[in-house]
């Protein structure tokens, strides 16, 4: 069992700089990336991003998502954990989404203080990062995750997971592959939302349910996916993600602080699980 909670973030935003030449397809293919507004409280440590050269744009911080999971109480780790593949997928878009989910798994492991789970996670992070071309940067984080999990330094582990996301972002900027960074953030949020809806549904209370109504986060990720290169938007699982987020949006578009009924929470959980399965269904087993 472990303690965590879902985000309760103030509604503010900033504009992501429009970058082009996505390396996902071809360095010669240019695109106009749609601007999307990130809820301000999802924006990570700008000093850390500047240190790693990621100061031209920003993506939602997976750490910020998990740091604000502080109202859901105790979680059953054994129920929420998922199997981690021994190999990375071949599809670069799926790698990015999967890497975000892995970072989310890392924060869950840290919050639950499951030392024995960190070694496998660290290896998986390195495999995925290598597949994206960022293995050199991530290698040191993978080793540090293992060392600090043995020491039980959970604050340091959170720092390493946050730096892992930032380091991949920095590498993607250098490779002009900015779309990948946004997809990593989406994967991390999907994992967090799946955990959060499960926690509220399993131990329902009106107070806990009030933290789930964040339409602005879903709107951001819809805009992010809409801004992908047209060839990427036509991928079946990207179509499914866009449709799933649109289906979820009306349920979340409620006045701030409004409580959800138990039935509504279970509906959100089902939709969150379906979205997560869109990604995990593409991952190698």
In short:
This protein has helices spanning 46-51, 62-67, 77-80, 92-112, 115-132, 135-151, 154-174, 178-202, 206-209, 215-226, 230-233, 236-252, 262-280; strands spanning 2-4, 13-15, 37-39, 73-75.
Account of the protein in words:
- There is one protein chain.
- The protein is mainly α.
- It is 61% helix and 4% strand.
- It has 13 helices and four strands.
- The protein has helices at residues 46-51, 62-67, 77-80, 92-112, 115-132, 135-151, 154-174, 178-202, 206-209, 215-226, 230-233, 236-252, 262-280, and strands at residues 2-4, 13-15, 37-39, 73-75.
- Strands 1-4 form a two-stranded antiparallel sheet.
- Helix 4 (92-112) packs antiparallel against helix 7.
- Mean pLDDT is 77; it is low at 4-34 and 51-57.
**Uncertain regions: pLDDT < 50 for 5+ in a row?**
4-34, 51-57
**What is the mean predicted local confidence, pLDDT?**
77
What is the rounded distance between the termini? Answer: 26 Å
The 3D shape can be described as globular
Rg estimate, integer Å: 18 Å
What keyword list fits this structure?
two-stranded antiparallel sheet; two-stranded antiparallel ribbon; 285 residues
Write the layout of secondary structure elements.
Layout: E1 2-4, E2 13-15, E3 37-39, H1 46-51, H2 62-67, E4 73-75, H3 77-80, H4 92-112, H5 115-132, H6 135-151, H7 154-174, H8 178-202, H9 206-209, H10 215-226, H11 230-233, H12 236-252, H13 262-280
Antiparallel strand pairs: 1-4, 2-3
């Amino acid at each position: 069992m472990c303690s965590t909670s879902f985000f309760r973030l103030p509604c503010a935003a900033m504009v992501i700089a429009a970058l082009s030449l996505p390396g996902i397809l071809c360095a010669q293919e240019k695109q106009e990336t749609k601007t999307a507004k990130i809820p301000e409280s999802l924006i990570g440590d700008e000093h850390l991003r500047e240190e790693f050269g990621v100061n031209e744009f920003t993506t939602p911080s997976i750490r910020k998502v998990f740091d604000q999971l502080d109202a859901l109480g105790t979680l059953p780790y054994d129920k929420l954990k998922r199997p981690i593949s021994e190999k990375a997928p071949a599809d670069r878009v799926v790698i990015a989404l999967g890497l975000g989910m892995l970072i989310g798994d890392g924060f869950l492991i840290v919050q639950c203080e499951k030392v024995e789970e960190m070694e496998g996670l660290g290896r998986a992070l390195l495999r995925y990062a290598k597949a994206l071309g960022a293995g050199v940067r991530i290698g040191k984080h993978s080793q540090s995750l293992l060392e600090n999990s043995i020491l039980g330094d959970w604050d340091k582990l959170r720092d390493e997971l946050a730096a892992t996301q930032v380091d991949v972002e920095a590498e993607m900027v250098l490779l002009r592959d900015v779309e990948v960074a946004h997809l990593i953030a989406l994967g991390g949020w999907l994992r967090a939302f799946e955990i959060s809806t499960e926690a509220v549904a399993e131990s329902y209370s009106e107070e806990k349910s009030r933290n789930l109504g964040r339409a602005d986060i879903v709107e951001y990720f819809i805009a992010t996916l809409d801004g992908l290169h047209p060839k990427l938007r036509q991928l079946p699982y990207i179509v499914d993600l866009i449709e799933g987020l649109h289906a979820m949006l009306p349920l979340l578009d409620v006045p701030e602080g409004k409580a959800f009924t138990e039935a509504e929470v279970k509906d959100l959980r089902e939709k969150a699980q379906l979205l997560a399965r869109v990604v995990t269904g593409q991952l190698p087993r």
